[in-house]
Specification:
ABC-2_transport_permease, mainly alpha, single chain, transmembrane, globular, membrane, 73% helix, ABC2_TM
């Protein structure tokens, strides 16, 4: 039996907020969820990291072999060298998106999302953990692609700060977009449609395999409406010191897109969109 007054003390203890400021309380538990999400993809790293690296190498071997002597992009930059940063960034973006989206849709379909819903995690904690793990996976795959493909052509880091900025920002943006897609989708085929008809076309049409300056005027203008183009172009600027548009313009557009997408994701999480019935 509970001693007199003990029930009141226990009730009061439950009402005491965790130590720290508002940010610490809002993010309480995010580290555990982040660790769980990183462990989820790392335990099958052969599939989640190794397979995308192999795919990028195959792209490089095919396109590089066929077009090396026929396509010239920047002065004194061979086509294979030009192609490598595009493949690295494409791998970062696609895998960051896949990490958050696949995790949420699997949790929905299998029904284990309820174990997260019963925890006192704030929407900020959910966002930080899921997007943080997506960034880790995206950068892990991108690093693997760069390490393997760098043997095929000379590469240098002319402006390494742009490499880091656009890799982190691009992974965070696509991880957040994957979070929105995972919240929206209720079945695996809906998620596949989102990835196949939105993410993949926007990635392939963002200048991964070509410079948009080689396109006709109409398609150049169309490419400039694609935010993925600015991620890849800014990332490529870090390697060669030249790009199709100013890296500051790319930074403003990608940063603005991230703020908008993050705001939408946080609001959906706060409302419990399609995860609380």
């Amino acid at each position: 039996m509970t001693a007199p007054g003990e029930a009141d003390r226990l009730h009061a203890a439950r009402d005491v907020p965790p130590p720290g400021g508002p940010v610490a309380r809002a993010l309480s538990g995010a580290r555990t969820l982040f660790y769980k999400e990183v462990l989820r993809f790392w335990k099958v790293a052969f599939q989640t990291v190794g397979a995308p690296v192999l795919t990028a190498v195959l792209y490089l071997m095919i396109f590089g072999h066929v077009l090396e002597d026929h396509v010239k992009v920047f002065d004194q930059v061979g086509y294979t060298s030009f192609l490598i940063p595009g493949l690295v960034m494409m791998s970062v973006l696609q895998n960051a998106f896949a990490n958050t989206s696949s995790s949420l849709i699997q949790s929905k379909v299998t029904g284990n999302l309820v174990f997260l819903l019963v925890t006192p995690l704030s929407h900020w904690a959910w966002f930080t953990a899921y997007v943080g793990a997506a960034v880790v996976r995206g950068l892990a795959v991108g690093t693997g692609v760069l390490a393997v493909t760098a043997w095929f052509a000379p590469l240098q880091a002319a402006q390494p700060l742009w490499i880091a900025v656009f890799a982190l920002l691009g992974a965070a943006l696509l991880g957040t977009l994957g979070l929105i897609a995972g919240l929206w989708a209720e079945k695996f085929d809906q998620m596949a449609a989102f990835q196949n008809f939105i993410v993949m076309p926007m990635t392939f049409l963002a200048g991964v395999f070509y410079s948009v300056k080689t396109l006709p005027p109409f398609w150049q203008a169309a490419s400039h409406l694609n935010p993925f183009f600015y991620m890849i172009d800014g990332f490529r600027r870090g390697f060669f010191g030249v790009s199709d548009v100013s890296p500051w313009l790319s930074l403003a557009i990608v940063g603005g897109a991230f703020v908008v997408v993050a705001g939408i994701a946080l609001e959906l999480l706060r409302r419990g969109y399609k995860i609380r019935h």
